[in-house]
Amino acid sequence: VTPDVHPRRRERQVTLENTDSDIGFCGWLLVGLSLLLVLLTLPLSIWMCIKIVKEYERAIIFRLGRILRGGAKGPGLFFVVPCTDSFINVDMRTITFDIPPQEVLTKDSVTVSVDGVVYYRVQNATLAVANITNADAATRLLAQTTLRNVLGTKNLAEILSDREEIAHSMQSSLDDATDDWGIKVERVEIKDVKLPLQLQRAMAAEAEASREARAKVIAAEGEMNASRALKEASLVIAESPSALQLRYLQTLNTIAAEKNSTIIFPLPLEMMQGLIKH
Protein backbone atom coordinates (compact mmCIF):
# COMPACT_ATOMS: atom_id res chain seq x y z
CA VAL A 1 0.00 0.00 0.00
CA THR A 2 1.40 3.40 -0.95
CA PRO A 3 2.07 5.81 1.96
CA ASP A 4 -0.59 8.34 0.86
CA VAL A 5 -3.50 5.88 0.68
CA HIS A 6 -4.51 5.94 4.35
CA PRO A 7 -4.17 9.76 4.74
CA ARG A 8 -6.30 10.20 1.64
CA ARG A 9 -8.91 7.84 3.02
CA ARG A 10 -8.97 9.66 6.37
CA GLU A 11 -9.30 13.00 4.62
CA ARG A 12 -12.22 11.70 2.56
CA GLN A 13 -13.87 10.29 5.70
CA VAL A 14 -13.50 13.58 7.60
CA THR A 15 -15.00 15.47 4.67
CA LEU A 16 -18.00 13.14 4.53
CA GLU A 17 -18.61 13.22 8.29
CA ASN A 18 -18.50 17.00 8.66
CA THR A 19 -20.88 18.25 6.00
CA ASP A 20 -24.15 18.69 7.91
CA SER A 21 -23.23 22.28 8.82
CA ASP A 22 -23.58 23.18 5.12
CA ILE A 23 -27.29 22.40 4.80
CA GLY A 24 -28.06 26.11 4.73
CA PHE A 25 -30.81 28.25 6.24
CA CYS A 26 -33.62 26.38 4.48
CA GLY A 27 -32.23 23.09 5.66
CA TRP A 28 -32.10 24.17 9.27
CA LEU A 29 -35.61 25.59 8.94
CA LEU A 30 -36.90 22.21 7.77
CA VAL A 31 -35.10 20.47 10.61
CA GLY A 32 -36.65 22.89 13.10
CA LEU A 33 -40.14 22.31 11.72
CA SER A 34 -39.60 18.54 11.94
CA LEU A 35 -38.51 18.81 15.57
CA LEU A 36 -41.52 20.96 16.33
CA LEU A 37 -43.77 18.34 14.75
CA VAL A 38 -42.15 15.68 16.91
CA LEU A 39 -42.79 17.72 20.06
CA LEU A 40 -46.41 18.33 19.13
CA THR A 41 -47.10 14.65 18.50
CA LEU A 42 -45.41 13.23 21.59
CA PRO A 43 -45.44 10.50 22.81
CA LEU A 44 -46.48 8.79 19.55
CA SER A 45 -43.68 10.38 17.54
CA ILE A 46 -40.99 9.01 19.84
CA TRP A 47 -41.39 5.58 18.25
CA MET A 48 -40.53 7.10 14.88
CA CYS A 49 -37.42 8.77 16.26
CA ILE A 50 -35.83 5.90 18.16
CA LYS A 51 -33.87 3.36 16.10
CA ILE A 52 -31.79 0.38 17.20
CA VAL A 53 -28.75 -1.16 15.53
CA LYS A 54 -27.26 -4.48 16.55
CA GLU A 55 -23.77 -5.10 17.85
CA TYR A 56 -22.44 -6.04 14.41
CA GLU A 57 -24.14 -3.17 12.56
CA ARG A 58 -23.50 0.54 12.04
CA ALA A 59 -26.00 3.15 10.88
CA ILE A 60 -25.16 5.98 8.47
CA ILE A 61 -27.65 8.82 8.98
CA PHE A 62 -28.43 11.24 6.13
CA ARG A 63 -29.94 14.62 6.97
CA LEU A 64 -31.35 16.29 3.90
CA GLY A 65 -29.08 14.10 1.79
CA ARG A 66 -25.90 14.82 3.75
CA ILE A 67 -24.15 12.44 6.14
CA LEU A 68 -24.74 13.48 9.74
CA ARG A 69 -21.76 14.77 11.70
CA GLY A 70 -19.95 11.99 13.53
CA GLY A 71 -20.32 9.35 10.85
CA ALA A 72 -21.56 5.85 11.67
CA LYS A 73 -23.79 5.37 14.73
CA GLY A 74 -24.17 2.30 16.89
CA PRO A 75 -24.40 -0.21 18.26
CA GLY A 76 -27.44 0.52 20.42
CA LEU A 77 -29.99 3.34 20.34
CA PHE A 78 -29.84 6.44 18.16
CA PHE A 79 -32.32 9.14 17.23
CA VAL A 80 -33.45 10.40 13.85
CA VAL A 81 -35.63 13.35 12.93
CA PRO A 82 -38.68 12.32 10.89
CA CYS A 83 -39.11 13.82 7.42
CA THR A 84 -35.53 15.09 7.18
CA ASP A 85 -33.39 12.09 8.27
CA SER A 86 -32.89 8.70 6.68
CA PHE A 87 -30.38 5.99 7.54
CA ILE A 88 -28.67 2.92 6.05
CA ASN A 89 -27.58 -0.09 8.12
CA VAL A 90 -24.16 -1.54 7.29
CA ASP A 91 -23.19 -5.09 8.33
CA MET A 92 -19.67 -5.11 9.81
CA ARG A 93 -19.28 -8.90 9.99
CA THR A 94 -16.91 -10.88 7.80
CA ILE A 95 -18.56 -11.84 4.51
CA THR A 96 -17.58 -14.87 2.45
CA PHE A 97 -18.25 -15.46 -1.22
CA ASP A 98 -17.10 -17.91 -3.88
CA ILE A 99 -15.31 -16.75 -7.01
CA PRO A 100 -17.00 -18.53 -9.95
CA PRO A 101 -14.70 -20.76 -12.06
CA GLN A 102 -12.66 -18.55 -14.37
CA GLU A 103 -11.23 -19.72 -17.69
CA VAL A 104 -7.65 -18.44 -17.64
CA LEU A 105 -4.91 -18.65 -20.28
CA THR A 106 -1.64 -19.20 -18.45
CA LYS A 107 1.74 -17.77 -19.37
CA ASP A 108 2.67 -21.01 -21.17
CA SER A 109 -0.59 -20.96 -23.23
CA VAL A 110 -2.56 -23.55 -21.26
CA THR A 111 -6.27 -22.97 -20.56
CA VAL A 112 -7.27 -23.83 -16.99
CA SER A 113 -10.41 -23.28 -14.92
CA VAL A 114 -9.74 -21.85 -11.45
CA ASP A 115 -12.10 -20.87 -8.65
CA GLY A 116 -11.56 -19.51 -5.16
CA VAL A 117 -13.09 -18.01 -2.03
CA VAL A 118 -12.72 -14.49 -0.56
CA TYR A 119 -13.23 -13.29 3.02
CA TYR A 120 -13.76 -9.57 3.56
CA ARG A 121 -15.45 -7.16 5.96
CA VAL A 122 -16.50 -3.52 5.98
CA GLN A 123 -13.86 -1.61 7.90
CA ASN A 124 -15.31 1.88 7.41
CA ALA A 125 -19.08 2.09 7.09
CA THR A 126 -19.07 5.72 5.95
CA LEU A 127 -16.82 5.07 2.96
CA ALA A 128 -18.66 1.85 2.09
CA VAL A 129 -21.91 3.82 1.73
CA ALA A 130 -20.67 7.08 0.24
CA ASN A 131 -17.91 5.92 -2.14
CA ILE A 132 -19.46 2.91 -3.86
CA THR A 133 -22.96 2.03 -5.05
CA ASN A 134 -22.83 -1.64 -4.05
CA ALA A 135 -19.67 -2.61 -2.18
CA ASP A 136 -20.47 -6.34 -2.16
CA ALA A 137 -21.12 -6.60 -5.91
CA ALA A 138 -18.08 -4.45 -6.71
CA THR A 139 -15.83 -6.62 -4.56
CA ARG A 140 -17.12 -9.80 -6.21
CA LEU A 141 -16.47 -8.49 -9.73
CA LEU A 142 -13.06 -7.15 -8.76
CA ALA A 143 -12.11 -10.55 -7.29
CA GLN A 144 -12.92 -12.25 -10.60
CA THR A 145 -10.83 -9.84 -12.68
CA THR A 146 -7.97 -9.94 -10.17
CA LEU A 147 -7.93 -13.75 -10.28
CA ARG A 148 -7.64 -13.72 -14.08
CA ASN A 149 -4.96 -11.01 -14.04
CA VAL A 150 -2.80 -12.75 -11.44
CA LEU A 151 -3.04 -16.22 -13.02
CA GLY A 152 -2.30 -14.79 -16.47
CA THR A 153 1.25 -14.01 -15.30
CA LYS A 154 1.91 -17.59 -14.07
CA ASN A 155 2.69 -20.77 -15.94
CA LEU A 156 0.91 -24.06 -15.26
CA ALA A 157 3.56 -25.46 -12.93
CA GLU A 158 3.47 -22.32 -10.75
CA ILE A 159 -0.34 -22.41 -10.55
CA LEU A 160 -0.30 -26.04 -9.40
CA SER A 161 2.50 -25.65 -6.87
CA ASP A 162 2.36 -22.02 -5.61
CA ARG A 163 -1.29 -21.60 -4.63
CA GLU A 164 -0.41 -19.90 -1.35
CA GLU A 165 1.73 -17.28 -3.08
CA ILE A 166 -1.00 -16.63 -5.67
CA ALA A 167 -3.63 -16.24 -2.93
CA HIS A 168 -1.40 -13.78 -1.05
CA SER A 169 -0.84 -11.75 -4.22
CA MET A 170 -4.60 -11.63 -4.88
CA GLN A 171 -5.31 -10.55 -1.31
CA SER A 172 -2.79 -7.71 -1.54
CA SER A 173 -4.20 -6.48 -4.86
CA LEU A 174 -7.81 -6.65 -3.69
CA ASP A 175 -7.02 -4.95 -0.39
CA ASP A 176 -5.32 -2.04 -2.16
CA ALA A 177 -8.17 -1.63 -4.66
CA THR A 178 -10.96 -1.75 -2.05
CA ASP A 179 -9.24 0.53 0.46
CA ASP A 180 -11.12 3.62 -0.79
CA TRP A 181 -14.40 1.71 -0.36
CA GLY A 182 -13.74 1.11 3.33
CA ILE A 183 -13.38 -2.66 2.80
CA LYS A 184 -10.70 -4.90 4.27
CA VAL A 185 -9.93 -8.15 2.40
CA GLU A 186 -8.89 -10.58 5.12
CA ARG A 187 -8.17 -13.77 3.20
CA VAL A 188 -8.18 -15.28 -0.29
CA GLU A 189 -7.96 -19.00 -1.03
CA ILE A 190 -7.63 -20.91 -4.32
CA LYS A 191 -10.11 -23.80 -4.16
CA ASP A 192 -9.61 -25.89 -7.29
CA VAL A 193 -7.62 -25.90 -10.54
CA LYS A 194 -9.28 -27.89 -13.33
CA LEU A 195 -7.21 -28.92 -16.34
CA PRO A 196 -8.48 -29.92 -19.80
CA LEU A 197 -9.10 -33.66 -20.17
CA GLN A 198 -6.45 -34.09 -22.87
CA LEU A 199 -3.88 -32.32 -20.69
CA GLN A 200 -4.79 -34.54 -17.74
CA ARG A 201 -4.21 -37.63 -19.88
CA ALA A 202 -0.90 -36.27 -21.15
CA MET A 203 0.29 -35.47 -17.62
CA ALA A 204 -0.80 -38.93 -16.40
CA ALA A 205 1.07 -40.60 -19.27
CA GLU A 206 4.14 -38.50 -18.54
CA ALA A 207 4.02 -39.39 -14.85
CA GLU A 208 3.58 -43.11 -15.65
CA ALA A 209 6.50 -43.04 -18.08
CA SER A 210 8.64 -41.33 -15.46
CA ARG A 211 7.73 -43.99 -12.87
CA GLU A 212 8.49 -46.80 -15.32
CA ALA A 213 11.86 -45.25 -16.14
CA ARG A 214 12.73 -45.02 -12.43
CA ALA A 215 11.62 -48.63 -11.93
CA LYS A 216 13.86 -49.81 -14.76
CA VAL A 217 16.81 -47.89 -13.35
CA ILE A 218 16.25 -49.42 -9.91
CA ALA A 219 15.93 -52.94 -11.42
CA ALA A 220 19.13 -52.44 -13.42
CA GLU A 221 20.98 -51.31 -10.30
CA GLY A 222 19.68 -54.39 -8.44
CA GLU A 223 20.85 -56.75 -11.18
CA MET A 224 24.24 -55.09 -11.23
CA ASN A 225 24.62 -55.50 -7.46
CA ALA A 226 23.44 -59.11 -7.68
CA SER A 227 25.93 -59.92 -10.43
CA ARG A 228 28.72 -58.42 -8.34
CA ALA A 229 27.70 -60.58 -5.39
CA LEU A 230 27.60 -63.70 -7.59
CA LYS A 231 31.02 -62.90 -8.92
CA GLU A 232 32.41 -62.61 -5.41
CA ALA A 233 30.70 -65.90 -4.42
CA SER A 234 32.16 -67.70 -7.44
CA LEU A 235 35.64 -66.53 -6.48
CA VAL A 236 35.17 -67.87 -2.95
CA ILE A 237 33.87 -71.24 -4.23
CA ALA A 238 36.73 -71.50 -6.72
CA GLU A 239 39.22 -71.19 -3.91
CA SER A 240 37.64 -74.13 -1.98
CA PRO A 241 36.17 -77.12 -3.97
CA SER A 242 34.40 -78.41 -0.84
CA ALA A 243 32.41 -75.20 -0.67
CA LEU A 244 30.72 -76.15 -3.94
CA GLN A 245 29.62 -79.48 -2.44
CA LEU A 246 28.24 -77.75 0.65
CA ARG A 247 26.33 -75.33 -1.52
CA TYR A 248 24.93 -78.23 -3.50
CA LEU A 249 23.71 -79.97 -0.35
CA GLN A 250 22.19 -76.73 0.95
CA THR A 251 20.25 -76.33 -2.29
CA LEU A 252 18.91 -79.88 -2.00
CA ASN A 253 17.82 -79.20 1.58
CA THR A 254 15.96 -76.09 0.49
CA ILE A 255 14.19 -77.92 -2.32
CA ALA A 256 13.14 -80.73 0.01
CA ALA A 257 11.69 -78.26 2.53
CA GLU A 258 9.68 -76.30 -0.08
CA LYS A 259 8.43 -79.20 -2.23
CA ASN A 260 6.89 -82.20 -0.45
CA SER A 261 7.57 -84.71 -3.22
CA THR A 262 10.11 -87.29 -4.39
CA ILE A 263 13.07 -85.72 -6.12
CA ILE A 264 15.63 -87.67 -8.13
CA PHE A 265 18.94 -85.89 -8.50
CA PRO A 266 22.35 -87.00 -9.77
CA LEU A 267 25.07 -87.53 -7.23
CA PRO A 268 28.27 -85.68 -8.14
CA LEU A 269 31.16 -87.90 -9.13
CA GLU A 270 33.44 -86.01 -6.76
CA MET A 271 31.45 -87.40 -3.83
CA MET A 272 31.51 -90.95 -5.26
CA GLN A 273 35.29 -91.08 -5.58
CA GLY A 274 35.74 -91.47 -1.86
CA LEU A 275 33.28 -94.42 -1.75
CA ILE A 276 34.93 -96.11 -4.75
CA LYS A 277 38.32 -95.98 -3.05
CA HIS A 278 36.92 -97.66 0.02
Can you walk through the features of this model?
It contains ten helices and eight strands. With 278 residues, the chain is α+β, with helices and mostly antiparallel strands. The chain folds into four domains: 5-91, no CATH class; 95-195, Band 7 domain (Tetrahydropterin Synthase, Chain A), CATH 3.30.479.30; 198-235; 240-278, no CATH class. The strands form three sheets. The protein has a three-stranded antiparallel beta sheet. The chain has a three-stranded antiparallel beta sheet with strand order 6-7-8. It is rod-shaped and about 130 Å long. The mean pLDDT is 79. Residues 48-207 form the Band domain. Belongs to the band 7/mec-2 family. Keywords: Membrane, Transmembrane, Transmembrane helix. Pfam families: Band_7.
What's the CATH class label of the largest domain?
Alpha Beta
Encode the helix/strand succession as letters: HHHEEEEEEEHHHHEHHH
What share of residues is helical? 40-55%
Report the β-strand fraction as a percent range.
15-25%
* CATH topology heading of the largest domain: Tetrahydropterin Synthase, Chain A
Reported for the largest beta sheet, the result is: 3 strands, antiparallel
- The CATH superfamily of the largest domain is Band 7 domain
* Euclidean distance between termini CA atoms: 104 Å
Instruction: Going across the biggest sheet, name each strand in turn.
Output: 3-2-5
The structural domain count equals 4
* Structural class computed from helices and strand pairing: alpha+beta
Quick one: how many beta strands? 8
Mean pLDDT: 79
Give the second-level CATH assignment, the architecture of the largest domain: 2-Layer Sandwich
Q: Which stretches are poorly predicted, pLDDT < 50 over at least 5 residues?
A: none
Q: Supply Rg.
A: 41 Å
Count the DSSP helices. 10
Global shape:
rod-shaped
